[in-house]
From TrEMBL:
UniProtKB keywords: Ion channel, Ion transport, Membrane, Sodium, Sodium channel, Sodium transport, Transmembrane, Transmembrane helix, Transport
A Pfam family reported for this protein in Swiss-Prot or TrEMBL: ASC
Species per Swiss-Prot/TrEMBL record: Mytilus galloprovincialis
Upper classification of the organism: Eukaryota, Metazoa, Spiralia, Lophotrochozoa, Mollusca
Membrane topology, record value: Multi-pass membrane protein
Protein name (database record): Uncharacterized protein
Cellular compartments annotated: Membrane
Membrane-spanning ranges: 100-124
Gene Ontology CC terms: plasma membrane
Primary localisation category: membrane
Membrane in keyword set: yes
GO molecular function: ligand-gated sodium channel activity
Amino acid sequence: MAATCYYQNEVEFDSNAELKEQCKCQISCEFTTFDQSISTSTSPADVYFPILQSMGYTDIKNNILEVRLYYDSLSYLLVESIPEYNTEDIVGILGGQMGIFLGASLLTLSELIEFVILSVAMVMKKCYRCAFRKKNEQNEQDLTQYY
């Protein structure tokens, strides 16, 4: 009766989408299942039945029960959920990425400063040459005027 009741409730639950949405049940952390199979036979075997009757056992098929339990398999399946990344991994990955980007940005900043310094130096050098050239030209003009 219990198995029939369980089966009816299971079918009702599985077929009703609203019940599934309303169910706030968490997934169980641990569960055990046992697969069963049943085989039956009459006991005692027909060969032994006349012998037992001659010994005085009557109605033996209704009064004796032999039960044997066997396990299908002695192995078990263990399923564990392990996080892909733990806290240390995440911190390490983020730290590595930050190191790369900060290193790259510091390198870029130093290259930019170097470019500015070299550009200013080149402009100053051109201005100095230009001023020196003008000064030399003026000195030459002054010299040519006296001679």
